[in-house]
């Protein structure tokens, strides 16, 4: 067979055929997709061949077509194919997150196995699968199809990972049906955590639901020496931010901070092929505002706070007297909220989407009112922006606690939100007696985050160690003609 014929059949250049191939497998929610894509950009920049996959649906913003080359460091895109007889269109499964979780767990393993086999048949066998939470089956499928290396990208904080680990090993230390208000006193590396500051999945009413069971399955492989499908736990954080929980976790878990995972020029806020002018005028509007004057408000892609609180938030933003930029995803502002905002003609701007990383990095933004999703917290810290936290779901309650008590960059807004409480919190963070301290601390986190991902920083060294491990795995597989399994109990050099 000629070299030209080989290239035509595989669709790969010779240099690509020799690259270690990393397959990123994501749960199909935007908050899961974004950090995994950002990790992929970094891995591709290190010379690895990277393919991203998930179940593609209308709720995921701006994902490209299969095998799209993209810009900058190349990431390939090949989506999981639902071949179940009952499948008709994605709307049936992807409107409700719980329905999504069930459907993905039902059809995902077979779809992923087929994808891995197609990669091998095309001359690019997968060296390493990296999954993220809620697709725990991905690593078992990878091992079963001969993929020699497995890793997880943990997309929440190490503080939350510590709580989950403690819950699954010592459930008696957590609130129960008999004592639902009990605090958690001794989670590794953490201060006392009140019952209402815990992630939902360790509270009695949620711990045994579908989401809790899926997390249990994912974390069961972490630190399990008998189950060698998982060699690395990459975390979207940085050592200086979470020193205590990271040090505590490392006694039994191969955690490697590689964050903060932020947007790059070719991946705008985790969304692909989004032009600079496709921001509904957000950046131009910010350009016209005074420095540190704008209140930026975004509650993520899942949180819906309801009509009454939408009105309260609108009234509170107007009452601050400050310009505000409010992202209202896939919703229509109720009339009361629109009226409170001056019918769209007041000092605020309401949009359906914005490039969050670039907005937070804009000099006009002085405060971020956030649902406390971990991606948002990490982006705000990396941008040096103080916050008002308004947690709603999952890990957000613990994140809110940490941003107030440990990171010391803002306040938590009591629920349910009221006009006066929001006005007071924003005022305190932006111009109150503690505003300078909040800003100073946020700036310090910004500098430490930048140092972590810079060449030679702690997160950069961990990423380099992971890349080298993938390369060794690739080389050993090629030289031995067989599989290689890395024991999670040793051989990993993790940086601080």
Structure write-up:
The strands form two sheets. A seven-stranded parallel sheet has the order 3-2-1-4-5-6-7, with helices on both faces. Strand 4, helix 6 (137-144) and strand 5 form a beta-alpha-beta unit. The chain starts with a helix and ends in a 16-residue tail after the last helix. The protein is built from 18 helices and 13 strands. The protein has 496 residues and is of the alpha/beta class. Helix 11 (307-320) packs across helix 16, helix 14 crosses helix 17 and helix 16 (419-431) packs across helix 17. The longest helix is centred in the first third of the chain and has 25 residues, at 97-121. The protein has helices at 3-10, 14-17, 30-45, 91-94, 97-121, 137-144, 158-169, 210-219, 243-249, 282-287, 307-320, 335-340, 356-360, 374-383, 396-405, 419-431, 435-453, 458-480, and strands at 21-25, 49-53, 76-77, 128-131, 149-154, 232-235, 255-257, 294-298, 324-327, 348-351, 365-370, 387-389, 410-412.
Topology at a glance:
Blueprint: H1 3-10, H2 14-17, E1 21-25, H3 30-45, E2 49-53, E3 76-77, H4 91-94, H5 97-121, E4 128-131, H6 137-144, E5 149-154, H7 158-169, H8 210-219, E6 232-235, H9 243-249, E7 255-257, H10 282-287, E8 294-298, H11 307-320, E9 324-327, H12 335-340, E10 348-351, H13 356-360, E11 365-370, H14 374-383, E12 387-389, H15 396-405, E13 410-412, H16 419-431, H17 435-453, H18 458-480
Parallel strand pairs: 1-2, 1-4, 2-3, 4-5, 5-6, 6-7, 8-9, 8-11, 9-10, 11-12, 12-13
């Amino acid at each position: 067979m000629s070299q030209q014929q080989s290239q035509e059949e595989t669709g790969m250049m010779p240099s690509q055929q020799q690259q270690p191939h990393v397959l990123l497998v994501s749960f199909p929610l935007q908050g899961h997709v974004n950090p995994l894509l950002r990790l992929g950009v970094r891995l591709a920049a290190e010379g690895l061949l990277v393919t991203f996959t998930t179940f593609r649906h209308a709720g995921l913003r701006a994902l490209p077509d299969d095998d799209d080359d993209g810009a900058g460091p190349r990431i390939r895109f090949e989506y999981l194919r639902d071949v179940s007889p009952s499948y008709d269109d994605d709307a049936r499964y992807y409107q409700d997150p719980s329905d999504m979780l069930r459907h993905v767990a039902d059809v995902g393993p077979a779809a992923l196995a087929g994808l891995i086999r197609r990669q091998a048949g095309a001359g690019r066998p997968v060296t390493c699968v990296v999954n993220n939470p809620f697709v725990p089956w991905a690593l078992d499928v990878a091992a079963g199809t001969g993929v020699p290396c497995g890793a997880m990208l943990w997309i929440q904080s190490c503080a939350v990972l510590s709580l989950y680990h403690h819950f699954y090993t010592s459930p008696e230390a957590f609130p129960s049906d008999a004592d639902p208000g009990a605090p958690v006193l001794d989670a590794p590396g953490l201060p006392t955590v009140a019952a209402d500051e815990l992630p939902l999945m360790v509270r009695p009413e949620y711990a045994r639901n579908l989401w809790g069971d899926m997390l249990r399955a994912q974390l069961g492989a972490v630190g399990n020496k008998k189950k060698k499908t998982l060699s690395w736990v990459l975390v979207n954080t940085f050592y200086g931010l979470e020193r205590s929980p990271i040090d505590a976790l490392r006694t039994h878990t191969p955690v490697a901070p590689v964050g903060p995972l932020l947007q790059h020029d070719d991946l705008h806020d985790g969304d692909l092929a989004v032009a600079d002018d496709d921001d509904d005028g957000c950046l131009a509007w910010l350009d016209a505002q005074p420095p540190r004057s704008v209140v930026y408000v975004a509650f993520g892609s899942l949180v819906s706070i309801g009509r009454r609180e939408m009105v309260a938030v609108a009234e509170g933003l107007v009452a601050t007297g400050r310009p505000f930029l409010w992202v209202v995803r896939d919703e229509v502002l109720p009339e009361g909220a629109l009226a409170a905002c001056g019918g769209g003609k007041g000092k605020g701007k309401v949009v359906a989407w914005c490039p969050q990383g670039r907005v937070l990095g804009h000099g006009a933004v002085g405060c971020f009112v956030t649902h406390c999703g971990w991606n948002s917290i990490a982006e705000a810290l990396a941008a040096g922006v103080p916050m008002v936290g308004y947690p709603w779901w999952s890990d957000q309650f613990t994140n809110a606690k940490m941003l107030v008590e440990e990171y010391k960059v803002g306040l938590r807004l009591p629920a349910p939100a009221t006009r006066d409480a929001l006005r007071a919190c924003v005022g305190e963070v932006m111009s109150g007696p503690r505003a300078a301290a909040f800003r100073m601390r946020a700036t310090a986190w910004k500098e430490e985050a930048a140092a972590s991902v810079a060449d030679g920083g702690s997160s950069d060294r961990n990423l380099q160690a992971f890349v080298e491990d993938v390369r060794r795995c690739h080389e050993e597989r090629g030289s031995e003609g067989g599989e290689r399994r890395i024991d999670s109990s040793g051989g990993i050099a993790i940086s601080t």
